[in-house]
Amino acid sequence: APAAAPDATAPQLRLGYFANLTHAPAIVGVEDGAFQKALGSTALQTSVFNAGPAATEALLSGAVDATFIGPGPTTNAYVQSKAITVIAGTAANGAALVVKPGITTPAQLKGRRLSTPQLANTQDIALRYWLKQQGLATTPTGAGDVSIAPQSNGDTVNAFKQGQIDGAWVPEPYASQLVAAGGKVLVDEKTLWPGGRFVTTDLAVSTKYLEQYPGTVTDLLEGLIAAEGEVNGDPAAAQRTVNGAIGKITGTPLPEDLLKTAWSNVEFTVDPIAGSLKEGAEHAKDVGLLTGDVDLAGLYDLEPLNALLKQAGKPEVSAS
Amino acid sequence: MTALPRLGADGATRPLRLLAAMRRRVLPPLLAVVLALAVWQLLVVLEVRPAYVLPAPATVFAQLGVLIGDPAFLAAVGRTLLRGLSGFAIALVIGTALGLAVARSRFVRSAIGSLLTGLQTMPSIAWFPLAILLFQQTEGAILFVVVLGAAPSIANGLIGGVDEVPPPLMRTARSLGGRGFSLVLRVILPAALPAYLAGLKQGWAFAWRSLLAGELLVIIANAASLGQMLSFYRELSNAPSLYATMIVILVIGMVVDQVFARVTNGVRERRGLSALRN
Amino acid sequence: MTALPRLGADGATRPLRLLAAMRRRVLPPLLAVVLALAVWQLLVVLEVRPAYVLPAPATVFAQLGVLIGDPAFLAAVGRTLLRGLSGFAIALVIGTALGLAVARSRFVRSAIGSLLTGLQTMPSIAWFPLAILLFQQTEGAILFVVVLGAAPSIANGLIGGVDEVPPPLMRTARSLGGRGFSLVLRVILPAALPAYLAGLKQGWAFAWRSLLAGELLVIIANAASLGQMLSFYRELSNAPSLYATMIVILVIGMVVDQVFARVTNGVRERRGLSALRN
Amino acid sequence: MSVLTTVSPVRIAGVGRTFGGATGTIALEHVDLTVEQGEFVCLLGASGCGKSTLLAMVAGLDEPTTGTIDLGGRRTAVMFQDANLFPWLTVGGNIELALRFSGVSKADWKRRTAELLDVVRLPGAERRRPHELSGGMRQRVALARSLAQDAEVLLMDEPFAALDAITRDALHGEIERIAGERGLTVLFVTHNVREAVRLGDRVIVMKPSPGRIVREERVPLPRPRRMEDPEVARRAGLLHDELDVQAGGAR
Amino acid sequence: MSVLTTVSPVRIAGVGRTFGGATGTIALEHVDLTVEQGEFVCLLGASGCGKSTLLAMVAGLDEPTTGTIDLGGRRTAVMFQDANLFPWLTVGGNIELALRFSGVSKADWKRRTAELLDVVRLPGAERRRPHELSGGMRQRVALARSLAQDAEVLLMDEPFAALDAITRDALHGEIERIAGERGLTVLFVTHNVREAVRLGDRVIVMKPSPGRIVREERVPLPRPRRMEDPEVARRAGLLHDELDVQAGGAR
Ligand SMILES: Nc1ncnc2c1ncn2[C@@H]1O[C@H](COP(=O)(O)OP(=O)(O)OP(=O)(O)O)[C@@H](O)[C@H]1O
Ligand SMILES: Nc1ncnc2c1ncn2[C@@H]1O[C@H](COP(=O)(O)OP(=O)(O)OP(=O)(O)O)[C@@H](O)[C@H]1O
Ligand SMILES: [Mg+2]
Ligand SMILES: [Mg+2]
After folding, report:
1. I need a surface site. Which of C128, D168, E94, E108 has the fewest CB within 10 A?
2. Cβ proximity of D114 and D99 under 8 Å
3. Does D250 touch chain C (CB under 8 A)?
4. Strand partners, D69
5. Is it the case that residue D244 has pLDDT exceeding 50?
6. Nearest CA to ligand 1 atom 2
7. Which of E151, E182, E198 is the last residue of a domain?
C-alpha cells in the first residue's frame, strides 16, 4: 500500500471499548476527554461492546476503526483476517484460579468441576494449559480429569457460592468476588508468566486505518498514554470515574471495596506484553482450541508508541 | 310488555354488573399473582436457595420501586420500547408484503415459502455478524435483527390466514367481480384477519426477544436499554435488579397481550364468533 | 363417454404431470437459491467487504462439505436436534394443556391468559439464571429454557384456534350431546387444528431459537452442540464455518417447515379448503 | 290439553327472547306452547318471526330472556337450518360422532350408519367428505345425524328446504315412520304450508315483530296423508290465506 | 333456436364435469343448453343432479372437464345456494362491496343499498350483522347483493328455499320486474315445481347419476302469473309426475 504522509489525520475515529474494569484507561480517556484532546479536530465516536466477538465483528467489518480488546479475540481476529494491528497495551494481569478453601494442591482438582467465562477465551485457555502442565487432562466438551463448564461470570459467582462448582479461572473483578465469597486463590495467573505480567487488554486498530491515517493513530496513542497516566497517577479518582461510567452503562456500579481490591490486582500499562499473547496462542494450540497455522508475525506495530515513549523519556516496549 | 324490567344476563342493574365484572376480570388474575407470590415467599422462607440467587419478593419489589423511580431506567425502558415498536412496524410492512406474495403466488410460495420458517428458526446470535457487516454500528443493526425475527412470523400468520379463507367466500368474492388489489384489501385480508392478528402477536414476541438480545450487540453509551441492563444484572449477579427487570418485561408483555386481545375480541364480536362461550 | 381420454387438469398423462410438478415445485426454489448465490457472489467480486468477513460462496460451501464430513459436527447436529425434539415434545404437552385450560375456562383465561404472552416475550437470557438455579448445569436447564420459549406459542395457537371455532359447529356438537373431554377431543381440537398447527410451527421456531441460545448455557461433558459451535465460530471470527453452520440451521428449519406444510396441507385438503386456489 | 296422563314433554310458558340488551331486537314475546307425548307439531311463520330462536331455546342451546321452558330432563335432538356438518369428518364420521355421543356401542356404528344413510336416500355415502356433497345431500346427512341420536324430542328446522319434491315426499314418509316407531315428540319448522298439514298433528302459526303465536290448528286427517291430497291442499290454502292476511297487516 | 338476431348469451355445449380424477364422481355428462337474450330459464332436478355444479361453471368459477361454455364475455351475477355473506361486514357493507366491485360510484351506494333492501323486504337492515339474521333474512341479503351487481346474466341457486310462502310470492314479483326492466337473462335453480312454472319461460328437467338434461318444457302462459293459478298448478303437476317417474326409474 502506498504509505500515507506520516502525519495524515482522519476526519473521525470510531473507537470501541468495554464497560469493564480491565478497560479502565479507555473509560477514563473517554470520560475525561484525554482522547478527544489528543485527537484535536478528529471527531471521536465511541461504541461500547459487551464481549469480544461483537468488537471483533465491528473491527473486521469496518464498523469501528480501533478497539480495546482482550488477547484471545485479538489473536482470533488476526489469524482469520491479518487485517488488524495491535499498537499498544492497556492493562495487564488480574486473573486467577479461585477454588474452595479445602483445595490446596493441583492434584486435588482431579474429578472436580471448574468454570471459565467462555469456551476458548483467554482464561479458558490458561486454565486448560495449566491443568495440562499439572498432568490433568481436559476436553473442549467438558470431559477429562477436570470438568470445565464455561458460563457467564455472574452465573459463576452464584454457582460458586452455592457450591455447584469447585472453583473458577476468572478475570477481575470476578476473581475478587469469588475471594470475597470465601474462595482461596490457588493460582494467580501472573505468577505463571515470565516477569510476572501478562496482557489483559490491548488496543487494536484496523491495519488499513493505520496505513491511511498514521497521524490519527499517533494522536490516539498520545491520548492513551495520557489516560494511563491519569489512571496510575490518581487511582482513587480513576476508580470513581470508571465506576461512574460502569454504573451509567450497566445500571449498577461495583461495590467500592470490591473495586479497590480488584483494581490492585490489575496493572495498567501501555506495554502490550507481546510475548504473553504469542505464548497464549501457543497454549491455545497446545490444548486444541486453535488449529492450523498460527502466524502472528505482523500483529504488532509498536513504532508509533515507542516514538511517543521515547519523546516522553519513558522506556520503550518490545514486540516480542 | 317491552317496558317491563327484564331479568337474566342482559338485565342486571349497573352496580351489580360492575361487581360481576370485577369478579370475572380482576379477581382471577389477582388470585394468580397472590398464589405465585405465596409460592415464591415460601421458597424463600424455606431457604431452598440462598437469598443472593433467590431474593425475597419484598426485596425484588423494593428494587422494582427504586428502578421505576430512576429516570435512567425509565429512559432505558422507553428506548427499548421505541426500538421494539419501530422494528415491529418495519417487520409488519415487510412481513405483510412477503406473506401476501407467498399466499397469493404459487411460484413465490414454492420459491421462498419454507425459507421464511428457516429464517425464523435462525437464532439472533447468528445474525449479529451479518447485522454489523451490513449496518455498521447503528440502530440499523439492532432493527435488522428485530425485523428478521418478527417478519417471518407475521408473514406466516398471514399465509395461514389466507390459506384458511373458506373457499365459498372466495368464490362469492370472485363472482362479485373482486379482482387484484381490491380483492386482497376488501376480502382476503379481512377474512384472514384473525390468523393475521395471531401472527402479529407471535411476531411481537419474536421482535421483543430479538430486540433484547440485539441490544447487547452495540451498547450505545449514555443510552442504556432494557436488554443491556438485563445482561449486566445477570453478569453482576444482581438478583433483585434482574428479577425486577424481568417483572417489568413480563408486565410489558402482558400489556401488549391485552392490546392484542382487545383488538381480537372486537373482531370476533363483530363476526358473531363470541356468541356462544361456555 | 367416460372412457374417452380427458383433457384438463385431471387428465394429463404421467410423464407430463411429472414435468409439470418439477416446474412447479423444483424450479422456483432453485431459482431463488441461484439468485441468492448470484447476489452473494457479486458482493464478493465487488469486494464490498473483505473476504474474512464476507467469504465467497465457494469457500463457505467447501467448509460446509468439510463440516458435514466431520462426524463430530454431525454428532453435534444430532444432539441439538434430539434436544430440540424432546424439548418440543414437552412443550407440546404443557402448551396444549395450558392452552385448553385457558381456552375453556373463563377463570383460567383471565387469571393467566396474558401471562402466557408475557412469558413468551421474555428473552431466553432472562431465564438462564433461573434455569441454572433450578436445574444446575444439566440438560434440564436447557430443556427448561426451550419449554418456556415454545409452550406459550403452542398454547396461544390453540387458544386462537378454539376461539375461532364457528359457533354453529359448537352448538351442533353440544346438541349432539358432546360434553367434557370427549367434546374437546372429538370436536374442539379437530376444529382448532389449523390454528393449532400454526401455533406448533411458531412454537418450534421459538424452541429452536431458545435451544441454540440455551446450549451456550450449559456445556455438558463430551457433548458438542450446534448452538455451542455457532458461538464458538463467532468467537473465533471463523466466517466460513459460521456461514456454513447458518446454512445447516436454515436447511433444518426449512425441512421442518416442509413437514408442517405437509401435515397442514393434508388437513386442509380433507376439509375441502384447498379447492379454490388462484 | 291432556291433563290426565304423564306430564307433557315440552312446556313453554311466557317465553320471550330479546337480543342485544334492553334496546335490542325482540325476537320472541310471551310464547306459550305445550306439546304432548308423541305429538307432531309444525311451526309456520314469516321469515324472521323467531322459529329458529324458539327451537334453539327448547334444545337448551339458548336461554329465554323471560319465561320458562321445561322438558322434564328429556333428551333432544336438533336438526339445524344449516347442515353444520363437521368438515374434518367424512359423512360416516359425522353420523358416528352422534352415535358415540349418544352412547351407542362401537360395534353397532357401521350398521346404524348404513341404515340411516339408507333412510335419507344416500346409501353408501359413508366415505364422502362434506365439501363434496350437494346442498341437498348435506342437509340429508344432517338429518341422518340428528336421527342417530337417542332423543325423545326431535327438533327440526326446515329439514327439507333444499330437497326436490320427490326426495322430500319419500323423507316425509320416513320421518313419520321413525317418529311413530320411537314414540318421538316432534317440533318441526317449515315454510311449506302443505308440508305442515301433511305432517302435523297440529300446526302453529307465528307472526313476526315481535315473534309470537297467533293461531293453532289441529289437523285431524287420517294418516298416511299425501301432499297432493285435496283435503291437505284445501287446509293448506286456508292457512296460506291466513298468513297472507297477517303479512298484509304487518307490512 | 333463434338464428337470426344476436348470438345467444349462454351457450353450453357438450359439457361434462367429473370430480376427483378419472375414477371420481361424474357430476354432469354431456349437457347442451342455449339460453336466449332476456329468457328466464328454470332448472329442476333431484338433489345432487348437478344443478349447482352447472351454475358454477356458467359463472366461470369452475371449469368443465369436457365441452365448452360460452357467454361471449357477458358479466354474470351469482346467488349461491348458501348465503355466503361476508361475516366481517354489515348487511349494508355486503351490498356495498358488490356495488364497489361493479364500479358503482360511491355517492350512489347508500341509495342503491336502501332500494335493494326494500326489494328483498328488509328495509333499514343496513347496520345489522350477518350472524344476527335469521336464515331467510340472510338469503334475502344474498339476493340483494347479487342484484346489486351490474350483470347481464343472473344465476340463482334456490334463492327462495328458506322463505315463507308470502315473502317468496312477493319476491317472485320483484325478480320478474327487475329481470324485465334490466333485460336480464336468468338461469334459476329451484326444487319447487310450481315456482319453476310460475317464473320460467322454459323449464329444464335434469336427472342424476350422471347429471344430464332429460326434458325441456316451454311455459307459454301469459304474465303476470300466480303460484295458485290453476294452469300453473296443472303444468306443475304434470312435471312433478314426470320427475316421479324418473325417480322411480333411477332408484
Ligand atoms: N344473535 C342474534 N342477534 C340479534 N338478533 C338476532 C340474533 N339471532 C336472531 N336474531 C333476530 O331474531 C329474529 C328471529 O330470528 P330467527 O332466526 O328465530 O327467525 P326464523 O323464524 O327462524 O326465520 P327464518 O324463517 O328466516 O329462518 C330475527 O329478527 C333475527 O334478526
Ligand atoms: N367438490 C366436489 N367433489 C366431489 N364431488 C362433488 C363436488 N361438488 C359436487 N360434487 C358432486 O357432484 C354432484 C352434483 O352436485 P351439485 O351440488 O351440482 O348438485 P345439485 O344439483 O346442486 O344438488 P342440490 O339440489 O342438492 O343442491 C353431487 O353428486 C356431488 O356429490
Ligand atoms: Mg330460522
Ligand atoms: Mg345445489
Report:
1. E108
2. no
3. no
4. D12
5. yes
6. E132
7. E151
Taking the Cβ of residue E77 and every Cβ of chain B, the question of whether any pair is shorter than 8 Å is answered with yes
Residues paired with D203 in a beta bridge: D42, D217
Whole-number pLDDT of residue C257: 84
How many domains does the structure of chain E reveal?
A: 2
Kindly report the protein residue whose alpha carbon is nearest to atom 8 of ligand 1.
E132
Which of D96, D126, D151 terminates a domain? The answer is D151
What is d(CA D141, CA D97) in angstroms, rounded to the nearest whole number? 12
Least confident of C163-167, E33-37, E102-106: C163-167
**Phi and psi torsions of A319, nearest 5°:** -95, 20
The parent domain of residue E101 ranges over 82-151
Tell how far the Cα of E162 is from the centroid of ligand 2, in angstroms.
Answer: 19
Instruction: Please tell me the residue having the least CA distance from ligand 2 atom 3.
Output: D132
pTM over 0.90: no
In three-state secondary structure terms, B149 is helix
E78, E102, E131 member nearest B272 (Cβ): E131
Q: Which of E177, E169, E192, E190 is nearest to E115 (CA)?
A: E177
Q: Determine the Cα angle at D5 with ends D4 and D8, to 5°.
A: 105
For residue D157, report the distance from its CA to the centre of ligand 3, in Å. 7
- Ligand with minimal distance to D48 CA: 1
Name the 3-class secondary structure at E160.
coil
Residues in chain D closer than 8 A to E47 (CB atoms): 134-137, 140, 162-164, 167
Residue in the block written with cell 360481576: B20
Can you read off the three cell numbers belonging to residue D163?
A: 330437497
CA distances from residue A19 to A27, A143, A252, B222 in whole angstroms, order as listed: 7, 33, 11, 12
Contact B219/B228 with Cβ under 8 angstroms? yes
CB contact A157 to B (< 8 Å): yes
Q: Which of D59, D82, D89 sits opposite C175 (nearest CB)?
A: D59
Inter-chain CB pairs, B–E, below 8 Å: 62
CA distance B128 to chain E (A): 42
Residue with cell 433450578: C134
Per-residue DSSP letters for D169-202? HHHHHHHHHHHHHHT-EEEEE-S-HHHHHHH-SE
CA–CA gap between residue B242 and residue B229 (Å, rounded): 8
Condensed to tens digits (0 to 9), the pLDDT of residues D16-45 reads 999 987 678 899 999 999 999 999 999 999
Q: What is the distance in angstroms between the Cα of E164 and the nearest Cα belonging to chain D?
A: 5
Do D187 and D198 lie in one domain? The reply is yes
Q: What is the mean pLDDT of each run of 10 residues along chain A (320 residues)?
A: 68 87 90 88 85 82 88 85 88 91 87 83 86 84 79 82 87 88 89 87 91 89 89 89 82 82 88 86 80 81 86 81
Write down the H helix ranges in chain B: 14-25, 27-45, 57-69, 71-104, 106-121, 124-135, 139-163, 167-175, 180-183, 189-214, 226-235, 239-270
Q: Which residue has the cell 332408484?
A: E251
Does residue E162 register a pLDDT over 70?
Answer: yes
> Which is nearest to A52 in space by CA: A66, A70, A27?
A70
ipTM computed for the complex: 0.83
Shared-domain flag, residues E175 and E203 = yes
In CATH, what number is assigned to the domain containing residue E229? 3.40.50.300
**Residue D239 and residue D166 share a domain:** yes
State the pLDDT at residue C15.
66
Contact of E119 with E178, CB cutoff 8 Å? yes
Query: Are the C-beta atoms of C137 and D38 separated by less than 8 Å?
Result: no
| CATH code for the domain defined by B67-277 | 1.10.3720.10
Q: Is the preceding omega at residue E210 within 30 degrees of 0, hence cis?
A: yes
What cell does D191 get?
A: 315454510
> Alpha-carbon distance C45 to C38, whole Å?
10
pLDDT of E60 > 70? The answer is: yes
Q: Does A36 touch chain C (CB under 8 A)?
A: no
- From the list A102, A27, A89, the residue with the least C-alpha distance to A305 is A89
